[in-house]
Amino acid sequence: MKYNILLLFCILSITSFAQTQTDSTQTDSTQIIEEDYSLYADVVDAPSDAKKKVYVTQKIIGLSPTKLISLGFDFVGSHSIEVDKIGNSSSSTANVASNNGTRFAANFPVISNNKMILSLGVNYLDFNYNIDNPIKKDNAFIYSLSQYKLNSYGVNATFFKPFNDKLFGIIQFSTDHNNAGLINQFNTNGLKYSGAVIIGRKPHDRLQYGIGLTRTYRGGALIYLPIAMYNYTFKSKKWGLEILLPARANLRYTVNSRNLLFAGFEVEGNSYYMKPMVDEFKLGFDNLQLHRSEIRPRLTYEFSLYKFIWMSVQTGYRLAYKFNVDNVDYTDKPNVMDNNLNDSYYFNVSINLVSP
Amino acid sequence: MKKLFYLILSIVMLNVAQAQTPEIPESDKILGVWEVGSGKARVKFTKYGNKFGGKIVWLKEPNNPDGTKKVDKNNPDEANRTKPLLGLNNLLGFVYKGNSQYEEGVIYDPENGNTYNCVIVLENDNTLNVRGFVGVQIFGRTDTWKRVTLKAK
What we know:
The complex is a heterodimer of chains A (356) and B (153). Helices cover 9% and strands 56% of the residues of chain A.
């Protein structure tokens, strides 16, 4: 019996010795001077508890880089506003010498891996109306625009979830505070909630598309709309389409990986609480909202200044779609003011930190 | 006497076996071939000095539509734009920092010619989390790679 135990020890030792042969792929490749890469075509997965699964990525080849941080300046040329009567003031026309503003956005991909991407963001933008002639204080709307900026600031979250190697879903939600007045004048009438849900498919590396639903203020007032997403890069990898209707659409031309040209349009808009009109003028309304919406056909040039620091230069024409004032507590009645904002050229420049 | 002989023999055999079975250092567990998350490429990690790096050893689509081999056409250095992607060293300079983490390295993306800071975490012996980022890690993306082994011939 004792001899058997000792014999067992010997057998075990020999077995252990035999297992010292290592996988040649784990040796230092400096020992291999020339590699036959065809060897790496025929492989097996190493044992793993997790079932290997391939997930679709959120981008296609050639898509313009995502802006992580963006700081920009927007300038609209001179134009006029035909203002409706309100209170004791009659209708009139005001000349806007220029309309400019600052835009800032930051997005932080707090979770970003194969299985999900969660990005949290903050944004700020303002519009400053430089109105020509001295403003009579009894013209509440023009006075408010000339004295106060339109401010918008908010937070947002975007969640991208791949279901498998083809299908994905996107949920986006944002909360903004929009008002005319000082930025620290918070009022719940200025809070606006927007969002979107998309279900999409990416059949190959150059195409992704999806459909969904959005709750948005791009048209000025709150509206629910279907949305369609379509991103495509042609086989040449020079031309592409980046579409998210009804918000925007662009034809993209890739000069090279660091220089991109776009032609397209974007619909911009929001609803702003006109606090000065409510507080300073006793008009009998308590929730006056400016419904602003415009369509901007434009040309854009984006280029890399240095590595991931990109610049965007954009020019186009601002087509005003809506610039009315309403008291949202009385949505079944006509607008309080039906104004007409005339069109003008615009220019936009921004500096951006873009995503890998 | 016989008992003593077998005992000594066992001890010697055990020691020889142990000597021939070196433990893989924690740092070297990254060595080997890995398939990227999309399944479109395989990268082999090797060691040079006290650093680790990876090179592309397989591509799912190694050729262009016209049949020519894919090259590093987006490289910011013109002189490198004709180099083939197969065999490209695209992960460089990783130092093992303990706790299954490799830092101070960079990863080069031939699809756009950009080089990113990178950290790698060995989640387990057969799973690698490779995170490329810009500046700070929050501005980045993690790709999960799986180990593969060559089929025995």
